[in-house]
Amino acid sequence: MKLHEYQSKRLFAAHGVPIPDGDVAATPAEARRIAEKLGGRVVVKSQVLVGGRGKAGGIKLAQTPDEAQKLAEEILGLEIKGLPVRKVLLDEAADIQQEIYLGIVIDRAARRPVMMASSEGGVEIEEVARTNPDAIKRIAIDPFLGLRGYQTIELFKGIGLADEHRRAFDRIARGLYETFVACDASLAEINPLIVTTEGDLLAVDGKMVLDDNGLFRHPDLAAKRDLDEETETEREAREAGLSYVQLDGEIGCMVNGAGLAMATMDITKHFGGAPANFLDIGGGAKSERVATALRLILADPNVKAVLFNVFGGITRCDEVAKGIITAFEEVKPDVPLIARLVGTNEEEGRAVLAESGYELITATTLADAAQKAVAAARGELEV
Ligand code: GDP
Ligand code: MN
Description:
Blueprint: E1 2-3, H1 5-14, E2 22-25, H2 28-38, E3 42-46, E4 59-62, H3 65-76, E5 79-80, E6 83-84, E7 88-92, E8 96-107, E9 112-118, H4 125-131, E10 136-140, H5 149-158, H6 166-182, E11 185-196, E12 201-203, E13 207-210, H7 219-222, H8 232-239, E14 243-246, E15 251-255, H9 258-270, E16 277-280, H10 287-298, E17 305-312, H11 317-331, E18 337-343, H12 346-355, E19 361-362, H13 366-377
Parallel strand pairs: 15-17, 17-18, 18-19
Antiparallel strand pairs: 1-13, 2-7, 3-4, 3-7, 5-6, 8-9, 8-11, 9-10, 11-12, 11-13, 14-16
Helix pairs in contact: 2-3, 5-6, 10-11, 11-12
C-alpha cells in the first residue's frame, strides 16, 4: 500500500525529520486559507500516488494566497498518469541550494533493508541507476543492530555533503530508518532532501510503500489507504480476501496457491498466451469465494478464456467445482472454460462439473491445460 507525500512526510516528521510547514486542501478555498496562514510563497503540490508530478505540471510555486487558490484550482482539475488529483499539499516554499536523494528499500539479495543516498536528488532514482550508477551509495542495515553511526557517515561522505551537515544528515537518516521500521514499510524515500540557501536540510518530498502483510499491526495506517490506488476489481478482490493483480493478457487464471498461480502464468506464457491476471483464491477456498473470483475475472473485457487450475490439498476439488457452478449461474460466462482439478476429491469435483450441463474443456496435466487455454483464447479449440 502506498502513502501520499503528505502522509509520508508527517510520519517522517514524527521521527525527527525536518519537513516544511504545510497542510492539505481538497478545495481551492481551503488552499487559499492554508496559504494565508503560512504567509509568503508556497508550493502547491498534487497528491497522487505516482512519481514525476513536477514534470506533469502537478507542482507549482505561488507567490500569494490568491495565486495559491488559482493554482490549486488548476491542479485539482488535473489527472496525472490516469489518477485524478483530489487533494493538494501546500508547503512553505524553500530556497534550494542542493537536492539529494535518501531512501530505504528491502534488498532481497542482501536480505536486509538497504539505505541509499545520492548527490543526484530530485530525479527518479531508477534514472540515476541507469545513467550514473556510481552516484548512488548503499549500505545494508543489520535489522538486529539497526542503523549505525559509522554507516550514516559513510553515506554522508560518499555523496560529498559539506561537513557542517553531518549531524543533521545523521539525524534524518536515523529518523527515516525509524519510520521505515515502525511502519513495516518496504520503501521509504525522501527525494529530494534539500539543502536550503540558509544551510538547513529539509525533506521536501516523501514517499512510502507499506508491506500489506504488516498492515494488520497498523490499523491507523491501513485506514489511510487511497482507494484510487487500486482498480475497482482489485479493491473487491482484497475485500473478499483474494490475492488479485490485473494484467493485460487474455487468459483469466483462477488458481489456488500463489506458487501455483505463478507457475500457471509462466506456462501460459510458455505456450504463447498471456495471463489476464494473477489470482490466488487461497487454501480451503469455499464456493462463495470461488464465485467472487470468477466474477472478477469475467468482468475483465480482455478475457477470452478462463483457466481453472486447482490443486486439492486442504482445498477440496468438489467445493471449488461447486463454486465454479454457482458463479456460472450468476455470471453466465460466454468464453471457453478450461478446468484442471487434481488432488483431494478430484473425482467428486469432476462429477460436479460434468453434471452441471455447462460445457467445460477438461485437462489433466498443467501443460495440457495451458495449451488448451491458449488455443481456446485464439478461438482454435472447439468445446
Ligand atoms: P515529484 O516530481 O513527484 O517527485 O515531486 P517533488 O516533491 O520531488 O517535487 C519535484 C521538484 O519540485 C523537486 O525536485 C524540486 O526541484 C521542486 N520543489 C519541490 N518543493 C519545492 C520548494 O519548496 N521550493 C522549490 N524552489 N522547489 C521545490
Ligand atoms: Mn520527488
